[in-house]
């Protein structure tokens, strides 16, 4: 199938603007790939240190037989339900390596925090920056330089982007990503959201709310909504970095261990020299575009408009929000998974999952099929669903949707576009995800109420002041502006705790929206939210000019985000400053002092909020 002209045009534009940085990156990849294996050439004392703790037979394989040695970087911990199953993976992978004359060592562990635990808490201010800390941890693990390949064990929000950024800085190595799968379905996401809204109104107490949350998040595995964690897994499938169909198999499913063992076999097949497929070559411009298309076609997390910009930069590739929006104009929405539908990821998988989506996009020319992947069959291998027959994995083509209320073909999509819109105007540049927002909420004009923190907005809701303002200002609504939430101000936390109160007001018929230089959770959706506003207020962005009472137009149809203030008045209006005590508090307690350098050096959201690139 010939590639769609818009997809090709975006790919060509990315390739052109990345020419110098990508060329420099590949030169480094090739130079490192041409070195002899370092375990064979380093000093005897170095080698002795590297193998001192491994079993005698493994020492023999590494030192005398000179078999492949695979590094394992793991994000295992017990706090993240999605990562708890990873505890047993290293032993499984080591066992599989030995069966093939190879060895494996845990090269290192990286931090992994659960955004669900830290939502609305001070710890959330470290969440975004944890991505770059994970990338650094990955580099520390692999910088021993004793590995012929590596496996990346991780699933959730910042963890996969961090592992991928770190991995791309070792782009000469073959690498495969290894997930753990989602938990089985519990209380539905819609029912959970209803209880949260009741709690926000004080109609149910903490006991009932906790009961609902425990019924929703009830077992090991990824949360079942299609947020950032599960979007990660979809994108890795589209990039050809998984064993095909690995994303959404439950942790205790009989296929899970087989797929984990297959990951070791897959990376060893590359290591054995059959194909030159190091991760730095796999992740090229076409691969990045495939990931962007998959995100749009499934209504995935807006967090990836930050994370995948950073991922691309790690491979010398430059993308921005214009690229996402242009792709969104031609990529149809094929999936309805919560929050842009009622289904959870288990229903998504049962209907055909990533395999069906990728097959449809390839057939329509909306994804590049001529790409390198960790499998020799190329991206076509990812248009399949794995199953177990007689104790062995087999892959079956995913050609038919098992539920057209969850997955639809390109010929009959839920929407002809990907539901992502770039907003521009005198308030800066922002993005809005409209795939989950009711059509009658795509255009909104209302007065602004400016808040300096999410706590201030929540207090206004609890006191009834927000609803009073909606009733009395003559516009039946409000645009809530929450500023000082960008990377430099406080680490750009997710503001998911604002969804229930705003959803309550919207449910009562008020026209409400959020404008912020912060982030929203990948689980947020039905309330219009212009997020990631860049430049952020602390960096002199125009959110520092807006005042309570200014009329604001949010038009997701034409892409406008505008304060309706006379141009001369707007130009002359001074920038507000963040309250001094608030700024000091952003850097105090719970380890936030350690991240002062991250806040100081962070680039804008549209530049990936990277802390490891100079301005």
Automatic annotation (TrEMBL):
Dihydroxy-acid/6-phosphogluconate dehydratase N-terminal domain boundaries: 68-379
Function: Catalyzes the dehydration of 6-phospho-D-gluconate to 2-dehydro-3-deoxy-6-phospho-D-gluconate.
One Gene Ontology cellular component: cytosol
Source organism, top-level taxon: Bacteria
Enzyme class: lyase
Keywords per UniProt: 4Fe-4S, Carbohydrate metabolism, Gluconate utilization, Iron, Iron-sulfur, Lyase, Metal-binding
Database matches in SUPFAM superfamilies: IlvD/EDD N-terminal domain-like, LeuD/IlvD-like
Binding site for [4Fe-4S] cluster: 156, 223
Family to which the UniProt record says this protein belongs: Belongs to the IlvD/Edd family.
Dihydroxy-acid/6-phosphogluconate dehydratase C-terminal domain mapped to chain residues: 406-609
Cofactor: how and how many bound: Binds 1 [4Fe-4S] cluster.
Protein name, UniProt field: Phosphogluconate dehydratase
CC cofactor: [4Fe-4S] cluster
Organism of derivation: Comamonas piscis
Recorded catalytic activity of this chain's protein: 6-phospho-D-gluconate = 2-dehydro-3-deoxy-6-phospho-D-gluconate + H2O
Enzyme Commission number(s): 4.2.1.12
PANTHER family hit by this protein: D-XYLONATE DEHYDRATASE, PHOSPHOGLUCONATE DEHYDRATASE
This protein's pathway: Carbohydrate metabolism; Entner-Doudoroff pathway
GO molecular function: 4 iron, 4 sulfur cluster binding; metal ion binding; phosphogluconate dehydratase activity
InterPro entries cross-referenced by the UniProt entry: 6-phosphgluc_deHydtase, Dihydro-acid_dehy_C, DiOHA_6PGluconate_deHydtase_CS, ILV_EDD_C, ILV_EDD_N, IlvD/EDD_N
One BP term from GO: Entner-Doudoroff pathway through 6-phosphogluconate
């Amino acid at each position: 199938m010939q590639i769609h002209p818009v997809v090709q045009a975006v790919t060509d534009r990315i390739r052109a603007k990345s020419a110098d940085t990508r060329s420099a990156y590949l030169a480094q990849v090739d130079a490192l790939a041409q070195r002899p294996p370092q375990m064979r050439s380093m000093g005897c004392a170095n080698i002795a240190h590297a193998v001192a703790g491994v079993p005698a037979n493994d020492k023999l394989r590494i030192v005398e037989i000179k078999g492949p040695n695979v590094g394992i970087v793991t994000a295992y911990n017990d706090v993240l339900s999605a990562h708890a199953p990873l505890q047993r993976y290293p032993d499984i992978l080591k066992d599989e390596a030995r069966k093939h004359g190879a060895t494996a060592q845990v090269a290192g562990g990286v931090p992994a925090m659960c955004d669900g635990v830290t939502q609305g808490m001070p710890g959330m201010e470290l969440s975004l920056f944890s991505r770059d800390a994970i990338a650094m941890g990955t580099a520390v693990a692999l910088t021993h330089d004793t590995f012929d390949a590596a496996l990346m064990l991780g699933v959730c929000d910042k963890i996969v982007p961090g592992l991928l950024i770190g991995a791309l800085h070792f782009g000469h190595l073959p690498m495969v990503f290894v997930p753990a799968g989602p938990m089985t379905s519990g209380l539905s996401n819609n029912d959970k959201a209803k209880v949260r809204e009741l709690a926000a109104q004080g109609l149910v107490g903490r006991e009932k709310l906790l009961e609902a949350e425990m019924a929703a998040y009830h077992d090991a595995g990824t949360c079942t909504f299609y947020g950032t964690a599960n979007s990660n897994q979809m994108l890795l499938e589209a990039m050809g970095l998984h064993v095909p169909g690995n994303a959404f198999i439950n942790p205790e499913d009989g296929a899970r261990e087989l797929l984990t063992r297959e990951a070791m076999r897959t990376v060893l097949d590359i290591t054995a020299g059959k194909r030159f497929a190091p991760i730095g070559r796999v992740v090229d411009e076409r691969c990045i575009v495939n990931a962007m298309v998959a995100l749009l076609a499934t209504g995935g997390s807006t967090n990836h408009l930050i994370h995948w910009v950073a991922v691309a930069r790690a491979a010398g590739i430059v993308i921005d929000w214009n690229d996402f929006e242009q792709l969104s104009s031609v990529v149809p929405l094929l999936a309805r998974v919560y929050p842009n539908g009622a289904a959870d990821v288990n229903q998504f998988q049962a209907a055909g999952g990533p395999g069906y989506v990728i097959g449809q996009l390839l057939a329509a020319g909306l994804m590049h099929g001529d790409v390198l992947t960790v499998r020799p069959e190329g991206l076509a291998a990812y248009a399949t669903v794995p199953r177990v027959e007689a104790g062995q994995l087999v892959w079956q083509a995913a050609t038919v949707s098992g539920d057209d209320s969850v997955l639809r073909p390109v010929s009959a999509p839920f929407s002809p576009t990907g539901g992502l819109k770039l907003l521009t105007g005198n308030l800066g540049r922002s993005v809005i995800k409209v795939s989950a927002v009711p059509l009658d909420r795509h255009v909104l004009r209302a007065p602004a109420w400016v808040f300096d923190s999410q706590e201030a907005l929540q207090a206004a809701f609890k006191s009834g002041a927000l609803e009073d303002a909606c009733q009395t200002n003559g516009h039946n609504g409000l645009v809530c502006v929450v500023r000082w939430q960008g990377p430099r101000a406080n680490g750009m936390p997710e503001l998911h705790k604002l969804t229930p109160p705003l959803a309550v007001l919207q449910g009562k018929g008020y026209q409400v929206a959020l404008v912020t230089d912060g982030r929203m959770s990948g689980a947020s959706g039905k309330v219009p939210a212009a997020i990631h506003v860049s430049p952020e207020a602390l960096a002199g962005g125009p959110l520092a000019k807006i005042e309570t009472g200014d009329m604001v137009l949010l038009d997701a149809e034409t892409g406008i985000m505008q304060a309706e203030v006379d141009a001369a008045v707007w130009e002359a209006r001074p920038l507000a400053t963040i309250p001094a005590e608030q700024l000091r508090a952003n850097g105090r307690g719970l380890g936030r002092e350690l991240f002062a350098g991250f806040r100081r050096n962070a680039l804008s959201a549209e530049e990936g909020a990277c802390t490891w690139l100079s301005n």
